[in-house]
């Protein structure tokens, strides 16, 4: 292996840039297509309080640790771990932490860019009036024509390339001229656009109904499943385990107050999720309820149909999906940075060349996910498409494993003096909480999340007709019709819910979620469908 490149690869010039970059990294699609659904299902305001508690007590210490590791070493996660291993005189096997985190970031970026390309296409579809007067069948046909039609996959690939070029062009400009300038403009701009859209939704919609769904306290809906939902979303929404926080920490200025900035990022991420939920439910009408909807069906089917009823709908739909593009774009920039930083530190290659090579690799890997929705849709291994396996591996294995290893290494392998130096000036109470959370609480909780994510996801594949070995369900776990009971289905894809709400969601399920909707739109063949709810595990995006 070549000698690692030792020169520092860049830094921010303003102390507030870390905050804007971190907000761009944490605010993702799950804030739009998962959090509102979870809040409305699990107690409204009580779920938000439970979610905040999970953020502050479980995941915030890990966020601080990853960022502090990068700031202390002034390197990306791989060389940062190398330095800490040498200082603590630990086994070189711990180097797997950094390498697995880079692999996780690479895989997540590969399929996140696919969703960005769909949103980018929808900006133009909305502006050109493709959704004017469209119902659910027509909107499902538009999505299927873009994503699922095997004869149109080259068009989908074109949007994919377009989106990736937007990401790579900014990254190639460098840390200051590219990343810092873009994030300081785009992230605040996206937040302003969200506020404008929220005001529009409140003006033309039903803000009282939205508040009842998202903010009102519903203790009767709070259950053990609510805690599971809060833990899952709190862990996956913050971009942990992928080297993002380490590289951003390494770029911070000496004046940046790291722990305060991270706390502000957590609160901002929660605020954005709440605003997104209020906006979504405010524009819902009696005939287009969003109860029980999430993911593809919410964002790319039901939302355009409902927005098409508003005045100047072409502008509104284009603006909404522009917001989605900006969210995915900033997320992609932050996911790309630890990969580029690692490659530069490993090889010493100039930034432009590094971005080009990494970008080409991400594009090739992304084709596996992109083609899983159309040309390779029927090519399944163990009952799942390539995309589904990539997401399950990252969400169920790599990200939890990296988080566990970081917690164990910093909690058990570093001396108290070294960990205290790495954290910097810290109140004794926070230092004590951090120490025991990293040692005991976080490894156990994250291991449970990873196991649940994987086991429930595999069980869901069985409910979809999979014949793999793990589908030999015990008789008690399978109902008479061969379906896996709702409580045993994967949480991320099919969260358990009260029977009354499950029945209601089944009745109001959009066309894209029915068992056999036929679409003949944009030349699609009869039987071609838009992606279904279970085609994606929403927490990991």
UniProtKB/TrEMBL annotation:
It is found in: Membrane. Its main location: membrane. The chain crosses the membrane at residues 18-39, 45-64, 100-125, 153-170, 182-203, 230-250, 262-283, 315-336, 356-377, 389-409, 429-451. Residues 498-507, 515-535 have a biased composition (Basic and acidic residues). Signal peptide: none annotated. Residues 482-541 are annotated as: Disordered. It is a multi-pass membrane protein. InterPro entries: Na/ntran_symport, SNS_sf, YocR/YhdH-like. GO terms for cellular component: membrane. Keywords: Membrane, Transmembrane, Transmembrane helix, Transport. The keyword Nucleus does not apply. PROSITE patterns: NA_NEUROTRAN_SYMP_3. This is Sodium-dependent transporter. It comes from Marinobacter flavimaris.
């Amino acid at each position: 292996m070549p000698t690692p490149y030792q020169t520092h690869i860049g830094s921010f010039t303003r102390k507030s840039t870390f905050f804007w970059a971190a907000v761009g990294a944490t605010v993702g699609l799950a804030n739009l297509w998962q959090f509102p659904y979870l809040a409305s299902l699990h107690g409204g305001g009580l779920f938000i309080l439970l979610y905040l508690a999970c953020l502050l007590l479980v995941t915030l210490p890990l966020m601080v640790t990853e960022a502090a590791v990068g700031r202390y070493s002034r390197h990306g996660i791989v060389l940062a771990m190398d330095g800490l291993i040498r200082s603590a005189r630990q086994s070189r096997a711990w180097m797997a932490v950094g390498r697995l985190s880079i692999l996780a970031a690479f895989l997540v970026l590969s399929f996140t860019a696919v969703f960005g390309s769909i949103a980018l296409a929808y900006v133009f579809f909305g502006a050109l009036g493709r959704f004017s007067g469209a119902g659910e069948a027509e909107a499902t046909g538009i999505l299927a024509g873009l994503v699922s039609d095997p004869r149109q996959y080259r068009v989908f690939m074109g949007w994919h390339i377009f989106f990736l070029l937007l990401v790579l062009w900014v990254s190639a400009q460098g840390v200051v001229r590219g990343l810092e300038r873009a994030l300081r403009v785009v992230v605040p701009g996206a937040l302003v656009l969200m506020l404008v859209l929220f005001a529009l939704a409140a003006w033309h919609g039903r803000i009282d109904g939205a508040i009842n769904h998202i903010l009102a306290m519903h203790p009767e809906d709070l259950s053990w499943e609510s805690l599971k939902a809060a833990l899952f979303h709190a862990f996956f929404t913050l971009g942990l385990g992928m080297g993002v926080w380490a590289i951003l920490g390494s770029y911070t200025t000496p004046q940046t107050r790291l722990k305060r900035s991270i706390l502000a990022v957590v609160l901002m991420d929660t605020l954005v999720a709440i605003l997104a939920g209020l906006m979504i439910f405010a524009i819902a009408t009696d005939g287009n309820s969003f109860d029980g909807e999430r993911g593809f069906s919410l964002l790319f089917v039901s939302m355009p149909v409902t927005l098409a009823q508003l005045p100047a709908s072409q502008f509104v739909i284009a603006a909404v999906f522009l917001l989605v593009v900006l969210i995915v774009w900033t997320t992609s920039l932050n996911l790309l940075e630890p990969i580029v930083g690692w490659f530069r530190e490993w090889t010493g290659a100039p930034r432009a060349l590094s971005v080009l090579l990494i970008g080409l690799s991400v594009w090739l890997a992304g084709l596996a996910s992109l083609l899983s929705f159309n040309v390779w849709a029927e090519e399944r291994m163990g009952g799942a498409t390539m995309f589904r396996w990539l997401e399950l591996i990252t969400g169920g294995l790599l990200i939890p494993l990296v988080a566990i290893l970081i917690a164990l290494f910093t909690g058990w392998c570093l001396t108290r003096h070294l960990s205290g130096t790495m954290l910097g000036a810290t109140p004794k109470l926070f230092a004590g909480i951090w120490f025991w959370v990293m040692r005991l609480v976080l490894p156990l909780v994250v291991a449970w999340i990873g196991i649940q994510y994987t086991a429930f996801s595999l069980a869901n594949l069985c409910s979809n007709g999979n014949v793999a070995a793990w589908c030999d369900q015990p008789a008690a776990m399978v109902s008479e019709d061969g379906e896996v009971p709702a409580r045993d289905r994967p949480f991320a894809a099919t969260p358990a819910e009260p029977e009354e709400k499950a029945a209601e969601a089944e009745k109001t399920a959009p066309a894209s979620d029915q068992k056999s909707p036929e679409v003949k739109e944009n030349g699609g063949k009869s039987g071609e469908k838009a992606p279904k709810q279970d085609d994606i595990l929403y927490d990991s995006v």
